[in-house]
Amino acid sequence: MTQPVINLSRRNFLGATGVLVLGTTLRPAFSSTQTNSFNPNLFVTVHPDNRVEIVSHRSEMGQGIRTAIAQIVADEMDADWNDVSVTQALGDARYGDQNTDGSKSIRINLDRLREAGASARQMLMQAAAAKWDVGIDTLTTEEGQVVHLSEKKRVTYGELSSNAATLVPPKNVQLKNRKDFKFIGKAVPHVDASLISEGQGKFGADIRLPNMVVAVVKRPPALGQQATSVNVPEAVKNDSRFVRVEQLDPTPGAPLFFPVGGVAVVASDTYSAMQFSQMIDIEWSTSDNQSFDSRSFQQDLRSMVESDLPTVHQSGDVDAVFNSSEKVIEHTYETAFLSHAPMEPPVALADVSAEGVKVFAPVQDPQNTQLQIVGWLKVPVESVQVNVTLLGGAFGRKSKPDFVLEAVELSKRLSRPVRVQWSRENDLQYDYFHAPSAQLYKASLNQNGLPSAWLQRAAYPSITSTFAPQAKSPADWELDMGFTKTPYLFENQRMEADGLVAGVRIGWLRSVCNIFQAFGANVFVDELAHEAKVDPIDYRLAMWPEKGLITGPAMPTPPGHEFKIERLRNVLNRARKISNWDTGKAEGRNLGVAVHHSFYSYVATVIEVGSGSESSQVKNAWMVMDCGTYINEDTCRAQMEGAVIFALSLAQMSEISIKNGIVEQDNFDSYRLIRMNQPPNIFVDLVESTEAPAGVGEPGVPPVAPALTNAIFAATGVRHRKLPMSMS
After folding, report:
1. Mean of pLDDT values over 672-698
2. What's the number of CA atoms in the CB half-sphere (13 Å) around residue 88?
3. Could you tell me the sign of the dihedral formed by the alpha carbons of 252, 258, 260, 266, in that order?
4. Domain regions of the chain by residue span
5. CB 3.0–4.6 Å: which of 209, 343, 436, 712 could bond 417 by disulfide?
6. 472 pLDDT above the threshold of 60
7. CA Rg value for the chain
8. What is the average pLDDT value for the chain, to the nearest integer?
9. Architecture of domain 308-339+432-723
10. pTM above 0.90, yes or no
């Protein structure tokens, strides 16, 4: 594959300083429906001292993207890994899509990053050819040097940087053959690992600016309330650490990414601001959301799926088959509200001055953050600089920069740098919550025990309610996450869906709607297999063709990412093998299985639980993932391991409940997560593939919960149809 390359360097200046800077302009690597495009952008700087500086335009939240970007570029450059360093990009439209969300960073950037590295390598070879007055075809590269093939002469990239910077970039570049990869697909240590382990990594709360203060916001009990009176005790007013209080009113309309509102208590340090916020007295206005109750909301969702909903897909005559069938199975599955609960709560430092706006924050999408600030302050985009720190976890929460706007607003009012620090209580109680759901599945079984008709219904609040008031029906892209995009397609089938407006903010969380839609489908199929007295793996394989594309009512997929049933069958068969499924079942081990396709990747999971009183204890988890071409083997394994722990928390214990508009959980004693001594043994099998790269960070989550509940059924005969299992 070849693409045109455009040099963004100021050649005269860079030629004098001896620094080679390259950028690439490529075709858009994303859907034409997206607003951002891949404009010329900066990726590589070669310094005279041989340092190869690679820019990461994506946010690092522990998933290893800074390392992966460096691996890709350095591989095509033939750089010496010891000379490679990574610099974090500012939010800048020239980078194209910078939103580190949706498990798409490698999928949409692999080619353009390879081309950036290959361009650098080719220009360095051209510089060496001119230096030695030889043909470029007599040269090669290795470990940061250009080598003359016959004379064995060598010159470092650093020595060539000044001359290379004066060259006209090549219009076409030659990419490596896969067999020649040195870093891509290998287990390269993360570039940030040492700094983080030594406590030197810079997260949001680690940044300091002269004259800065810290704000903690005391928030209203229910969404939409605002302060009607604020009483600050004299003891607080007279404390030298106290600065002032500022009221932040909620923004009318859809939540968008605007501040949720409250009273900001500003002090000289974080601890003092937190203490003072507990001492002030506030009276609040009323809000329509004060009556919101998650338990009654869940009942409403459950009632919805018990009746007809709007049809999103229909084939054949489902009702006629049901009416004539002797065996019809029907069950309902439910999941609760969830919080992102990243280890690092939201935090942002803003400095709004006459010279412009500077922000330092752990955000997943610096460009959107930049645009939100532009809209909030009504300032030119070029005056806003968004610096991305390391993210201490995110899971989708930090792509919603409401906390940044709070810091920007307060800095504007105080005319000094302000850091807004969310507490854990703020984080859990004022999140953009993952939607709860109810799903009904119904199927009739033929004489072979396979479905002859199939009905599925889903009801949940839509993420689109973040952007449009009163939006309630799931969007097509939400249904595409395991509901309409499904391997369970039949001649007689109907899919129905609808939603309700919640009294809290709804947002996307790691794996999004795949979490509950994979749960409903996989548990129901397990129930059908049990009724048919067929092994759950055999049952799935019997429903699917041997090979071919799965289309049906799903949304179109990008070229190269078609849903191939043979890849789904392969991960399921590999999971069967590595878990010793057949032998284990014969020996009486309690095993459950699930398989799911999401973010264009294929994952199969087998879970083993104990027996009797230990049936809720997960002993082993086997994960098989086919994500196409992957960059860092260790990262992929770590993401699968993390997915198991993340998903077990959601399945067993994590739940957000709301009463009178108030979230009842306020810390990790009430919003519970898996502890360090609780995870099972985890075994990961990566499918080596030449297919296009797909998602890694999210696809491991959806099949874990259904595999767990299926394993518990194997152990106890008790079927958990609600998550977390404490709801059952």
Report:
1. 96
2. 27
3. negative
4. 16-197, 204-287+346-421, 308-339+432-723
5. 209
6. yes
7. 27
8. 93
9. 2-Layer Sandwich (3.30)
10. yes
